[in-house]
Amino acid sequence: MENLEQKIQFLKNDFVNSLATIDPNTAPLFGKMNPQQMVEHMAEYIRMGYGNPRIAERSYSDEIIDKMNAFLRTEKPLRPNTGNPLMEETPPPAKLKDYEAALQEVQLAINELFRAFEQNPNLEISNPFFGDLNFALTVQLLFKHGQHHLRQFGALAE
């Protein structure tokens, strides 16, 4: 993994600003979620990063999780249309009143994530896809995941 501090700064300072550049009516370049569904999805997965909710059941065998954890430690991006067995084929409807509320929710989730790791620097969360993740691996995963969804809506300068 490279540039942990830059990834932390991206998540804390740049991610929500980048999301805010996406018009809520933008069609995805891949995948089925609209911008608000994607932002609400990110808030949920950021919270999973510190165990709220805790997903104890693994989605894959130990062998596949080991391979996925090895991938996580690289700088390779997530591929478009990467599958997620925790998600239905059709995205759920948006829960919040509008895109602005979803942006506020993802910022709140980011703040909660960093507060959880500040309060417990040794926190490790069992991720159903990547195994046990400490702070650095959680940041790596959320950075990759965030970049993936920014690419989904053309909001990431390559």
Structural commentary:
The structure is a single chain. The chain contains 5 helices and 2 strands, in the order H-H-H-H-E-E-H. The model has no long low-confidence stretch (mean pLDDT 92). Helices cover 51% and strands 4% of the residues. A hairpin with a 3-residue loop joins strand 1 (125-127) and strand 2. It is globular and about 40 Å long. With 158 residues, the chain is mostly helical. Strands 1-2 form a two-stranded antiparallel ribbon. It has one domain: Four Helix Bundle (Hemerythrin (Met), subunit A) (Up-down Bundle), CATH 1.20.120.
Query: How many H/I helices?
Result: 5
CATH topology: the name is Four Helix Bundle (Hemerythrin (Met), subunit A)
- Number of beta-strand segments: 2
Mean pLDDT: 92
What key attributes describe this structure?
158 residues, mainly alpha, Four Helix Bundle (Hemerythrin (Met), subunit A), two-stranded antiparallel ribbon, globular
How do the helices and strands line up, and which of them pair or pack?
Layout: H1 4-20, H2 35-48, H3 62-72, H4 99-119, E1 125-127, E2 131-133, H5 135-152
Antiparallel strand pairs: 1-2
Helix pairs in contact: 1-4, 1-5, 2-4, 2-5
Q: Quick gist of this model?
A:
Helix content is 51%, strand content 4%. By secondary structure, the chain is mainly α.
